[in-house]
Inverse folding.
């Protein structure tokens, strides 16, 4: 009988859980591990990780990793891929890393059409450093640096990352998914697989934005946090595929 909760080979057998209770990072990393196994990529994978909660990926995945300076994971991945084009290279980043301090590196990696895959966990806050306002903080959201809620006059608007990346000519695939329900988790896995496939096919930059909960900094229970993902985040950041060159080419 199949073991429903078996540990993927790409995950360390002695990992310790380093995320807050209810955090969706663990689910996202589990999906990545499953795909690395199913696509036979483990032995040829190099991951470039960022600064933030995403850095704990080291504690879970048994693959080669490169630690990038804050915001420079896509730049680091570019160097790794160009130096070792036979490797499968992906980044694992938070929204603050990918879309704030690293926005230039992220956008230009997409514009150049680098054959790497990037994963951006969007929880609308800086999770590791205390819950400050980030590039994706939604209007009205209270954070430690926006105690009266985000407003247009002072903070401007949140960035819609998947849509922006889709506008880059070098992007082969851009999608936004969520992890709040089982069907959405299954959709997320398929989106990640597609982002991996376009790299393997040499089509360009693959990108997946994942809407994630952050119960600790949102001051919510895990259940309440997933309700917020659905009711407050999804209307601002609609789920879907924003670019897929394989579909455009009729493949």
């Amino acid at each position: 009988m199949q073991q429903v909760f078996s540990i993927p080979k790409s995950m360390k057998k002695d990992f310790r859980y380093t995320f807050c209770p209810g955090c969706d990072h663990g689910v996202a990393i589990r999906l990545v591990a499953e795909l690395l196994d199913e696509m036979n990529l483990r032995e040829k994978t190099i991951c470039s990780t960022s600064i933030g909660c995403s850095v704990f990926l080291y504690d879970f995945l048994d693959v080669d990793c490169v630690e990038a300076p804050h915001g420079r994971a896509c730049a680091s991945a570019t160097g790794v891929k160009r130096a070792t084009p036979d490797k499968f290279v992906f980044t694992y980043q938070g929204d603050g890393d990918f879309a704030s301090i690293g926005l230039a590196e992220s956008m230009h990696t997409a514009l150049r059409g680098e054959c790497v895959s990037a994963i951006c966990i969007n929880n609308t806050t800086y999770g590791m450093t205390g819950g400050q306002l980030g590039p994706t903080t939604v209007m009205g959201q209270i954070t430690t640096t926006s105690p009266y809620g985000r407003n247009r006059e002072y903070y401007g608007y949140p960035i819609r990352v998947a849509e922006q990346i889709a506008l880059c000519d070098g992007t082969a695939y851009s999608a936004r998914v969520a992890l709040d329900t089982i069907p959405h988790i299954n959709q997320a896995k398929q989106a990640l697989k597609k982002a991996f496939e376009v790299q393997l096919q040499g089509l360009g930059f693959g990108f997946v934005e994942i809407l994630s909960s952050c119960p600790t900094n949102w001051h919510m229970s895990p259940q309440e946090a997933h309700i917020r993902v659905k009711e407050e985040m999804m209307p601002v950041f609609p789920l879907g595929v924003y670019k897929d060159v394989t579909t455009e080419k009729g493949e």
